[in-house]
Amino acid sequence: MENLIPIPQGGAQKRPGTKYIAEVKTSSLSTRIIPFEFSTSQSYVVEVGNQYMRFYTNNAQILSGDGTEDLSAIGNLVGHWLLNDAAANQTVLDDDGGTHNGATLAANTEDISETGKVGSGCFALNGTEYVIVTDHADFTFSDAGAPGSKPFSVAAWIYVTDQSNSTIIVSKWDAGAATREWRLFSDSGTTNNSLLSFEHAISAIPTSMHSKRAYFRIGSS
Q: pLDDT over 90 for what percent of the chain?
């Protein structure tokens, strides 16, 4: 039989056909098409190519996601810097009630503003700029399980462009003094990947990660 599917109960039926939805992103390179069924009512097709993935459902590409930068439903946030400020000043607003606003080192936020993955923007720090937030007891944590401990998590979206040097992502860590509590940083790595680590007074937690991709990473005590 050709172009037919045998039925267990007997007989045969025509095989399902295919439908043209879209051209792959780069036709000159190899691309894989992978089916993904999340549930009986939700199914997708994943287009996997050179350093990218695209998703399709209901005969069309998914062009907008459900990501959000609104974390107001989380009641125990200490600080939440969206890094989407784009003004003629250096103020970096804390979205968690504005209790811990920061400031850029030298540039106005409008000069380092770029299009982000989620929300209205992000900062392109380019290895020269960073955000300074005044020290506060809210940022001091102790080891999980210790008496009076304050376990915590630190999370960030980052895009790695230079893995030749170690880069601090967020920290309460004064390299030139005895005040060294914790830091989340991208460690120097090889051509194909770099290392992301979370370090505090008790331990360091390394996590392998590929370079030049967008990542969401969390460090926990």
A: 26
Task: Give the integer Cα–Cα distance in Å for 76 and 152.
Answer: 10
- Tell me how far apart the alpha carbons of residues 18 and 36 are, in angstroms, rounded to a whole number: 16
Q: Under DSSP, is residue 9 helix (H, G, I), strand (E, B) or coil? A: coil
Question: How many beta carbons lie within 10 A of that of residue 78, not counting itself?
Answer: 16
Task: Inform me whether the pLDDT recorded for 137 exceeds 50.
Answer: yes
* Residue that is written with structure tokens 């190899």 in the block: 30
- For 67, the 3-state DSSP assignment is coil
**Is the CB of residue 45 less than 8 Å from the CB of residue 57?**
yes
Mean per-residue pLDDT, 204-209: 38
pTM of structure? 0.61
Structure tokens at 176: 């030139």
Residue 61 bridge partners (DSSP): 56
Residue with tokens 């399902």: 16
Contact 114, 91 (CB under 8 A): no
- Whether 133 contacts 145, CB under 8 Å: no
Structure tokens at 107: 């540039």
Distance of CA 8 to the CA centre of its chain: 47
Please give the C-alpha separations between residue 15 and each of 1, 3, 6, 42, 58, in angstroms, as whole numbers. 11, 6, 9, 22, 20
Task: Give the residue from 182, 187, 179, 181 showing the smallest Cα distance to 206.
Answer: 187
Query: Rg for the chain (alpha carbons), in Å?
Result: 24
